[in-house]
User: Fold this.
Amino acid sequence: MGFHLHRRVRLGPIYLNVHNTRITSWGFKLGRFSRNMTHGKTTIDTPGPGRYTFHGKRRRR
Assistant:
């Protein structure tokens, strides 16, 4: 095991997820709506503790 650094950097509505020194994903958040551009995931926060998540096109590996 080694040392791992995982951090979310926010630049206004845009965020970058950084793992060690690499950007692993990025997206934006506006109010209750957020979109992860790397993974194609869209999330809408609902009132209370819930949220609704749906995915765009999935890539086959």
